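Dear colleague,

Following up on yesterday's call, I've attached the two folding results inline so they're easy to grep. Please treat them as preliminary; we haven't cross-checked anything against experimental data yet. The first protein's sequence and structure tokens come first.
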Amino acid sequence: MADRSNSLENRLLFAIPKKGRLQDATLDLLRGSDIQFKREHRLDIALVQNLPIALVFLPAADIPTFVGQGKVDLGITGRDQVAERDHSTSSTGEHQLGWEEVLDLEFGSCKLQVQVPENGDIREVSQLVGKHVATSFVHLAEAFFADVERKEGGNEDATESVPSERQLRTQITQLGGSVETACALGVADGIVDLVESGETMKAAGLMPIATVLESSALLIKSKHSSNPDLVNLIASRIRGVITAQKYVLCQYNVHRSDLETVTRITPGKRAPTINALETDGWVAVSSMVEKKKIATVMDQLTTVGAQDILVLPISNSRTI
């Protein structure tokens, strides 16, 4: 243990989800950012071989706390976990967490939703006031139903920032997992839980009636990092990988008289690159285009006279 502690000296600590829905995409992101490491079996710390960084594998729910308290410098976790921790500090009167959002990583998209039995009578969140609601996101659920009760006039004492169990008429029950089974087992009248495709909820006979929060993976940093320059370097690498995953490079030739029209179709992230061709009156255009839009963009370019259209993958990038 002492050797492991000594090996962390002068290393930036980067918290990574140790399991769950975000881990695989996070590890792919690290590989794309050339963060080279080998995680020994059953160890939750991995030393990066080519940078002074140590990866610390933690439960996603704990990462906002470790980053906020300055115990680690960087972390990847879900917006839902950040929001839950933020609401927990508000409700207990603790100081706000010392973390900052660096980047929305654009993966792990899901929704924190209120779900109720499809074959039941509840169709509005107001109908859950005074009933039992099960969740693993207690503080977000309390804040949500405090707002519902206040709007319904059911509890004028409930406040948005500091809801409490004593103030709420709605009874929030904390569950650590398998929340979707709570209604079928008679534990709750409704639940608040994360939903990705919705298939699990459908299989459990549940339907959504409200969205508490839309979530995706975030890169967060401590306000008291031991090495802010290295934090910025890693953020820049990760941002470059995300851009490369999102965009392709579209190249084509077009007559200069059509240039204004085609650059409206492919404006690029900042502006397209334009080079003159030896053929009189023609130019070559290069522009970054969102991958999901490229087929439509190619059709539009062809229609307005662009020729020799090529689409190239971007393996990595550095963009703002």
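Below is the second protein, in the same order (sequence, then structure):
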Amino acid sequence: MASPQHLALAHAVSRKFPPNPSVSPAASSSHRRSFLSWSLSFYPQPILNAQRRSTTGLAIDFPTLNILGFLCYFVSTSAFLYSPLIRHQYAVRNPVSPEPTVRLNDLAFAAHAVVLSLVTYSQFFSCWGYRQEKGRRASIPILGILVGSVLGVLVTVFVVESRGADGGNDADGWAWIDVIYAIGYVKLVVTITKYIPQAYTNYLRKSTSGWSIAQILFDLTGGVLSLLQLVLDASLQNDWSGIMGNPIKLGLGNASIFFDLIFILQHYWLYRGRHLRGKDDEETALLRDEEAVRS
């Protein structure tokens, strides 16, 4: 198996990077602030939905993919933290760095993200009494990602059981840690794709009304601080392998920042004139937006 790629994945399944006792106080502070910013980013959207009593303007694909991604992250993080078998297989494949990079705060973050994503997703249903667009459901491409992710993990389980040595307990062949890696790869796919439906929805509506820009500002802050931590660590240790040697982690961080900048561009420049004023204006604009999306 390709353990260098798997090692990169173990670092990359989270967009947070755990602090190392040997790093500088500045880098450690940057990590704490990025962790806080990412945690806070889950609150503005459900709060905005509650204030407007509507989810119009928010693509249902976004919380759908968030649930899938952070549920996978929770499972993979739990396995690396608490499964003796997975931790042993990780150590066998990575003798130079036998300790998984995940920490308890990663697990707490994942659980927190799953709960808040479920709350946001639930706001699309009538139990909240919010104004809804009829027939609203996840798009076919997103459903394809959901089904493909489940099938991919199940295929990996089948391969481990059928081809793995000692029932998948031998880390030198197909092993149960590969199932955890497959779950981690689902998180990577979700991180890359989850913003696309919302950016497209904003484009169709020519408006960001209903989409919280505050969550994007928190997310961007966390991403920039996280990259700053990487640069500080590499500079102080005179070792740039942590950046250049892990393109998955670097690419994921840059992908999220890229979409954050797109949303900021849409909100503050491209569709700036579409800010709604007053309840009556909002009702009229929402009806027009719904017609535009359906067409």
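For the second protein, one point worth flagging: The CA atoms of residues 12 and 249 lie 5 Å apart.

Best wishes,
A.L.
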